[in-house]
Amino acid sequence: MMRRTLLLLGLMLGLQGTAFLEVLAQPRHPRVFISAEEAAALRENAERYTLLRTTLARVRAEMEEVLAKPIEIPPPGEAGGYEHERHKQNYREMFKAGLLYQITGDERYARFVRDMLMGYAAMYPELGPHPRSERQIPGKLFHQLLNECVWLVHTIVAYDAIYNWLSEADRAHIEASVFRPMASWIMNEGAYEFNRIHNHGTWAVAAVGMTGYVIGEPDWVEKALYGSNKEGKSGFYAQLDQLFSPDGYYMEGPYYARYALWPFFFFAEAIERYEPERGIYAYRDSILKKALYATVQTAFPDGVLPPLNDASLTMDIRAPGVVLATDVVFARYEGDPALLGVAHEQGQVVLNGAGLAVAKAYDEASEVPRMTWPSVEFTDGADGRRGGIGFLRTGVGRDQTVVLMKYGVHGLGHGHFDKLHFMLYDNGRQVIRDYGFARFINVEPKYGGRYLPENESYAKQTIAHNTVVVDETSQNRADRDEAEAMSGQRHFFDGRGGPVQAMSARANGYWPGVNMQRTLLLVEDARLDYPVVVDLFRVTADTMHQYDYPLHFLGQPIWDNLGIRGYPDQLRPLGTDFGYQHIWEEARARTDSVVQFTWLDGSRYYTWTVAAAPATEVILGRIGAGDPRFNLRREPMILVRRRGRDHLFASVIEPHGYFNEAREISLRARPQVQAVRVIGHSEAASVVEVVGKGGWTWTIMVTNGPADPDARHTVTFGNRTFSWTGNYAVEGVVVASDSRR
Amino acid sequence: MMRRTLLLLGLMLGLQGTAFLEVLAQPRHPRVFISAEEAAALRENAERYTLLRTTLARVRAEMEEVLAKPIEIPPPGEAGGYEHERHKQNYREMFKAGLLYQITGDERYARFVRDMLMGYAAMYPELGPHPRSERQIPGKLFHQLLNECVWLVHTIVAYDAIYNWLSEADRAHIEASVFRPMASWIMNEGAYEFNRIHNHGTWAVAAVGMTGYVIGEPDWVEKALYGSNKEGKSGFYAQLDQLFSPDGYYMEGPYYARYALWPFFFFAEAIERYEPERGIYAYRDSILKKALYATVQTAFPDGVLPPLNDASLTMDIRAPGVVLATDVVFARYEGDPALLGVAHEQGQVVLNGAGLAVAKAYDEASEVPRMTWPSVEFTDGADGRRGGIGFLRTGVGRDQTVVLMKYGVHGLGHGHFDKLHFMLYDNGRQVIRDYGFARFINVEPKYGGRYLPENESYAKQTIAHNTVVVDETSQNRADRDEAEAMSGQRHFFDGRGGPVQAMSARANGYWPGVNMQRTLLLVEDARLDYPVVVDLFRVTADTMHQYDYPLHFLGQPIWDNLGIRGYPDQLRPLGTDFGYQHIWEEARARTDSVVQFTWLDGSRYYTWTVAAAPATEVILGRIGAGDPRFNLRREPMILVRRRGRDHLFASVIEPHGYFNEAREISLRARPQVQAVRVIGHSEAASVVEVVGKGGWTWTIMVTNGPADPDARHTVTFGNRTFSWTGNYAVEGVVVASDSRR
């Protein structure tokens, strides 16, 4: 803090520019990502440390294949097409080759980078804006400026790495033909992107700023840090201020976080290496460190990042931006051993001093911990007051059960209309799921690999998520601006472990006059096979509505207590808009009683038990209607439909038993939980009972009024009175004498 | 052969019974599965050999859990229910405990077996026939006799193992209360099963025969070997004669083979141990050895047995019957090192001398080969003249590509109407698939875990397979008796390796007046990413018919050249009977041109390119119509529909490119093959051209007349003349200078 204050003082006194020029005057190369000293240390330890050895072996093998083929620099092509992919591949290869030249001293790598750069220098000046940009700011090599920035970030590292090896004439030619015009294009024609508070903006400022450092243009660095007009309303610092909550949670969610971390840490490293006096890693109470933790700590036990907002179902912490951030945070902060568990899942390190530090610590650790995150909540919004995201966790390593709930901000253009959405990860898989984005990323025949139309018409809509839908419309009627102006609100979060953990949040006004509160509990009872999820979803409204409560699962329906029957000879869409037009209605049943539905997913059974309410409809659906191009996956869903004003959906999801088809074993295919009963709910509290086989009962009491862990509550429903202290209480859970895990 | 002749002579002279009694007079226990000497050797080497150590550790750990709980012997219950499973678990535990007692000398195991046997001795005499047998011969403990026989096979081994440890009084009580009445029940009330040429019959004779050896009832052994009336028309020898082809292929297919091998090898071991002079392992030119090879050599590279006829999709060579047979064949025959590759996949051994032999050889081998089977054909039918099954293979270990075609017998009650059906295994998965059985095995809420009604109405029908369907009816109109009377016929098989392998077979008269010939080629061309499948399916008929050519795949449609469009707002079943009532029609298009359809499965793209024909219809379907109980999986299919008399479906399945969603990489999503052209086809030959990108061409010539590898053929189609020698020829394939594999 002190150092930052001094720097700001220096800036105000007009000293900063001068000091800056002194730094840049030092003719040191390489510097922007790796130094000669680091390269020497990597060379020395190349065979010593497991993760470094593995990484180097892979990268060298890849480059051997590359060096065996001629360099190819095609004219620009369409998104996802061959030329597009070739230019992407080229920057990846230059980046690797540059670092390998530093580490090994083998001039073949340097020649490769030079020859490719000379090729680009021959082509680039002739290029105009890319003709197929489609509503985006174009690059010249690529249809969108973003790719051009990513190209430059990687390429400038490669250039820096061979800078001293290049002739002065070649350097001048390359800088004049490629780096200067490209940086100029990004800053000027691309000013909108450059000044955006968005990950595209971060790539832009990182590209320009890193290039400014390497080729000695301090003015570019200033613009990169403080925006085109250097006022600080945009640029890197503004992005650090506004794109993360105070907890480090990235507002677009983890899938984009893994991509945003990449330029944040590339540029941060460059700043630290050229201007350590800026104290970039201490900035905003170490926001860069928090950003890394708030990304990896959202990961499921297998390392996959939860698909919140537009996201693939498989993106994971092995993504290069996360590997870079993990290694840098380990090296630049306190060397947290928990990050070695992350490095273990990653199985690789970055090729600079930070990667070396991780590789060394990994091998020298007496025991590398398995990646096991605790229950954790991240606030959302730049001020941390716009809701958040909560994770309840129990178990160790890959066997963890995870329940997450999303109650933060909309999340910009990739946001989904999914407040109070939840997911359940259990037994190594996403059991209650998010559809992810509707996109076959980079698959050229599928709409050029871009987002598919069904991303808007289905994947973003509320019904595609596990949260209550009102009147077959989406939250905010799928109006993004309206959604951005609101946020969910946290009620309470208790992730201290123990047999019961709980979190509660609200989403008010996402439909006019409708307020919602969801309370999720993760309960471990010695009489049950596995931890179960209890869900109290309370809706209050000023008038009657239809409420649809959907669960998206995978696997096969096994049993239900309704005698539900699939339609034999005709399927129709469930609705006409807001995603309902994409769901085939497969079956419908009516009941006034408790609903029970069992399905089989992997080696485990799951039963959903929903408290009774009059005139309940249960609908089985399958995604795929209104999908002429077969863009959607044919996945199942179940929903419980009710009409009402104030209503509490109370339910339990119970994993149970074991199935192994190959071994032909099936155990406990029927649930233990027999019923859920709503005792009562009001503005003050909700009280629910869960009844198990043989009659055992849990009583669950949740405070609906203001959160206060010390407040004493007494409510009466019918002739029964309930008292508890704090935000919630659960009675009747049997704790195993020795914990199962 | 000589020894068998002598034995038969002895039998005719009435000597055999005497010699037999002498053998049985020896008071040796244990003997039926393990001897005291073997047990001592296992004890001595318990920690030495990997596979033995692993197996023992697992079995001991399992038994520790068992010993910690009270013994439970419930009254008989329904199929798949708790009691049913408990009795199954009991025999498994007694079997393990008996062997562990022998190996470790720990009396806790012996006590466990005794206490459980005494429990059964207390209950069994009170039991009548199981009340819920439903069209099957009942047991007393179980609803079907089969389970009772499996119980007895395992339990008699356990009894033999603790025989000497038991008091004479206990032995007398147990034999009188359990083994004698149970064996009597199987031989008498169960005579139909006991005398059946069927795997149920093998379990019955093994149970009775092994019990006869252990408790000294030579008459039972005689009946087990030669049938109730000892005439040899039924019993073990007749089963060995009739259930396997001369190549050892089991007529019900691999899924049931893995189950049938179990009693075959249990009983064979008993015979060899009590009466080695019978030379059971040499019987029928070593048919037991062939039976093991003809099972494991059908396995896909991951060890999964191909789902032919009623079968699960996951049953594999780790099944206990296959482990037993593998170890016994290794020990009793020539110790083939290739079987160590099988043992590697199994990761376990049986706990007797055979298992020890494998464990020892496994650790002592300088290198354990990966399980890599060559291309191979097995004839079908007891005489080997009723068609067969062919496997074309290329590649090593788990990376193999496998094409299989089924052209043998129907296969009894579990047979499917699927002659000329084929499957493709590629990139570690079943790419062109068989549905398997419609059954959630042992899942009690799903119809008691039994075969579901949809097994008859869908899974067995021709349309559920990858073979041409005529007039929307199944082969033999799904009449089993009619199907049993026929078989496919092999035409030729060339699995010698090299860039082109091929197999061809016929199915004539499965529809009245309709003959079929399918020729499958596996082609490796240096210009293509992976081996491709070429399929020439020729149908000839005496009148016009509708021909449907379906492929069952998984994954997502990516591209087609027809602009095919899914129905947006209504789905109807594709037909009304023979399985068609279970398929939702999702889309339909018409074309007179070449059909191309690309889908994505796992990390690879697949394109099906079908030669043009006028008025072709292409239909996309999805399983799940007419399925009120959600018993079927919602899997996709594509079919090409044509009308004609004589028609050749010529097509190519090309795997290509690479997709990795997590890494966001997509390469070569479009195919290289551009067209398939039928040049001509006649009774003499079929000639087809495959055309690739840039115009390269393969010319494929297949002989349709009698097979003769040396015959010279010349045919003229239009103005082109083609000449070749042998059953087929392919021109234009470019062979890689250094093979990819």
UniProtKB/TrEMBL annotation, chains A, B:
Signal peptide interval: none
Domain Heparinase II/III-like C-terminal, first and last residues per copy: 380-553
Record's GO cellular component terms: periplasmic space
Keyword entries, A-Z: Lyase, Periplasm, Signal
Molecular functions per Gene Ontology: lyase activity
Residue span, Alginate lyase domain: 69-286
InterPro entries: Alginate_lyase_dom, Chondroitin_lyas, Hepar_II_III_C
Protein's cellular compartments: Periplasm
Protein name: Heparinase II/III family protein
